[in-house]
Amino acid sequence: MKIENWKLEIRNGQSIMEVLVAVTIGAIIIGSATGAIILAINVNLQSRSTQIATGYAQEALGNLKSVAEGNWLKLYSVPAKGPSTQYYLAVYKTLSGTVAVTNDSPSVSGTATTFTADLVAGDNIIINSLPFTVDTVNSDTLLTLSSNYTGTTTSGLAITRDFSIRSGTEQIVSNNVTYTRSFSVQNVNRDACGAGSITTDAQVACSGTTGILEDPSTQQIIVTVSWPIRGGSNTSTATFTQYFSRTADQVMKFIDWSGGTTTSVFTQPTNQYTSQSGLNVSTSGAITFTTTVGPSTGNLISATFDTGYANGVTYNTIMWLGTLGTGTTSVQFQFASSNCSNGASDYPTCSGTWSYIGSDGTTASYYNTTGPGVPVPLVSSQHNNKRYFRYKVILNMDAGSTTPTVNNVIVNWSP
Known about the structure:
- Helices cover 20% and strands 41% of the residues.
- By secondary structure, it is α+β, with helices and mostly antiparallel strands.
């Protein structure tokens, strides 16, 4: 009887071990399942964070595009360029409260305003439809402009912060995750003397149409968004690259030179010019040779033209319309630009005069045209952010040829 009881206890003991093994196996399965669930959750959270970061990057690129289209120089003229210098964009915002301003004074007084929270030095603001730059934020209700207020003395005006580029980074919190966002600006080089394809190669001096130069009408923007990875000290980073171009084009079309010489500055095409040699411009709407048969060469220098943009423009192309005549003939251009109305290069002293240059940046080179109606790219880096311009058109014909005729000259630029 004792033996049987002993056997029973053994069987009972085996049953308990089996239960323990089963429990252990179950715990392992549950633990593995829990780990898989946690991993799946983390992967899902990381994927969602990536989607949110992508949205923030696209938002930044969209706002920066608006800046580029509205005021290219705001983007092009940041204090420093390259990936080591980061910026963020303070977006367009109507600020709280109202302001009072005094004509010919830089002080702006606020009522119920929060200047210290809304503005920093260098921000762009709009008061009474006039643009200004903040020099100093003195307090919540007082700021100083970088220039005197030019409107009439008044109070109760709304104040708006325009898109403003600030140094550093910004933080955005979403679903308890802090995202850090910033962007950098980089100059862009192109082959074909700055008018061809984008290249990462270093600049090479231009000879004719061969060379690598900066294209001041294109900038590379790299937006970076980073955020902490859940459950660790590591950070995930996403970068987004886009090229922005100076897209707003304007043209000035010149159709007549029969009005004689002038030294005046014009904002619209005129029938006057600075000087000419060897050409006939007495017929309205035509530049030709005084003789109908070559060989001969002659040139005309246009009047001085003011684009009206105080910060200058970049000049894109020049083109002519007319006929080449017969035989061996050509029409060439040289171009001159300046921030001084007298053509000097030492702005604001402005003690020099005009210099007419061609594609390699020297007075010995020319912009050669292939015929009427074909735009010739100007080397923009040589004429970047310049307010005033002149063009010089040169006509050539060999012996036995008949005169080319220029009826229009068209200059294209981007503000």
